[in-house]
Each structure stands twice: as structure tokens, then as C-alpha cells.
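Illustration 12: Cysteine--tRNA ligase, cytoplasmic.
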Amino acid sequence: MYVCGPTVYDTAHIGNARSVVVYDVLFQLLKFCYGKVTYVRNITDIDDKIINAASEKNSSVESISTYYTRTFHEDMRSMNYAEPTYEPKATENIDYIIKLIEHLLQSGHAYESNKHVYFSVESYSEYSALSGKEIDELDYGNRVEVSENKKHPGDFALWKPANDTDYKLSSYWSSPWGEGRPGWHIECSAMSHAYLGQDFDIHGGGIDLQFPHHENEIAQSKSAFAGSVFAKYWVHNGFLTVNKEKMSKSLLNIIKIRDLLHSGIKGEVIRHALLKTHYRKPFDWTKNVISESQETLNKFYRLLRDVDVITIEKIDAEVSKDFVEALINDLNIPEALVILHEMATKINRTNNENEKL
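Figure caption equivalent — predicted structure in C-alpha cell form:
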């Protein structure tokens, strides 16, 4: 399983955390069902946002990415997630990225233009199969960069030449096309291939990455390796809003995990709140989500305090079949939580009856 990880230019917000906990549940479910699972989640540690953050803070790209990678790990560990099998960084795979770009150039799916290297979307007949977007109807100038260097406005950068800021911050590498840095999309194609091969089972990420990021990953990878299916299954978690509005700096409504933790909210409460809604559905964060999750967990904790743990440890207990089946059914975590509530109610009833005796 490959999941698109964070771009480390700022502390993690609840949208980042939703993706982490959703795929953590999937990872642990797959391990429960199959035993061994290889889970790769990358770190994007070179990107325009990181470079801008380094410029604004008069720091280096490496310092910014290292600091925010550490804070990401600290915040996510508070929510009791399992570490992925591998967590490659883009900057540690530059040679592999360059080789993949060279392969795309040799196969006629990419071209060099004014020290840029672009992928030709017209060279790949199945482009837009994942997102359903027509090439001629794409929103050029918004999510797709407009450039006179391109043959087609939908073509996307595989390699970008270094500019003055890159030289100032040392955010560039040598390549056959001159000094520069990779485009975002090629990073994930290179790292998934490096750790999982041409074909693997599951690719995950937020629905906001479906286009253009995941669409472009498919085009690159399937074009580079003839006969490849790349990822057999695609999993996307839904959008997260705050009081029905998109999180943004302009609205001052970005909710950081670190701020929640510093306010005294436990990571397990945040995790429960983010898992109450089915992963594919949009999730709206309101002022009540934390208090509701805290109340639910308190109920479970009170129940566990009354259970004879020593007796339980002596029993060869099995995980509830209904609980597992709920998760296997398109990762229906809300249904699995309902089953936990039903189990808690039965245990409570039994305890009350025993007390009467």
C-alpha cells in the first residue's frame, strides 16, 4: 500500500490527520487479515511551499523540512498510529527520480523545453480515466500551470530548472537537463516504484489529490512501464471542512493538531472524532466533535475499569466477527464503532445483573 504523505512546510492540521488515521486503520486491518503488509507513506521534503516557508523565515529548506517532519511524527504518534513500513523522502530519491524521467523521455512520453522537462498528456490515451476530467476541459491556470514552454496546456512538469531562490537556498540538484529540482507528481511515482515495484495493491490519499496528482502518477507510471497496472485499487478519503467552510489561512480556521494537544485534548479523542464519519464522506469539524468523542471514550473507560483484566488475559479471546466484517466492508469504521457501543451496552447490562445477585 502506498499513501501520499505530508508536504512538510507547516505543522499538521486536522485534514492531514484524517488521512493518517484512516489509512492507519486500513493498514492494521490488512495486517490482521493477511499477516504481512508493506505500507509506504512518503515525505515530500522539496516543494514550492517548503521553499516559500524557508524564504519567509530566513531559514534553509533542510531546516524547515526536518523541523516539520519531526512535529508531524510527534503529533501523529499522539493518536496511536502504527509507523509505516517505509517512509521515503523525495530528496533521498533524486537519482531514482532522474532515471524515471530519462525513461519517459526515451519512450516518447516526455519532452525537454527550455531546461524544463514535461510529461505529454496527449501521449497517454487513458489520461483522466481516474478523475473523469476531459483534457480539453481542465482548469488551466488554476490547478494546472500555464506556460509557454508546454506543447499542450495540460502537460505537467517532471523537472524544473533552478531559479535564483533555489540557488540561494541550495534547493537544486544536477541533472542531464541542468541544475534544478523535480516536479511534485514524479516524486510519488518514483518512490512507489522504488519500494513496491511496477504494480502494487492499494494507493491511498485525500480526494483532493485525485486530480491532478493521482491522475498524473498513473500517467507517468503506466507510460514508463509497459503493461503496468500501477495500483490495482484506489482509496480516497473525503474532504474535511470546519463549520461547513473550507480550511484556509484567509478564513483563519485552520485547526492544528498541535494546538488541540496543547489545549489538553488527548490524541485518542482527536482520532475518535476523525473516524466517526465514513472515510469516503465529507467530514465537517464543529465545536461539538471533541466533546462528543470525549464522552464516548469516557463511557468505554468507565466500563473497562469495572472489568476484571486478569480474567480477560487468561481467556483466549477472539476479535468480534461482526466488528471485523464491518471494517472489511469498505472500511466501515462508523459501523464498527456502533458494534463497540452495542458490546459495551451488553457488558453494562450483565454487570448490573451480577450486582443485583
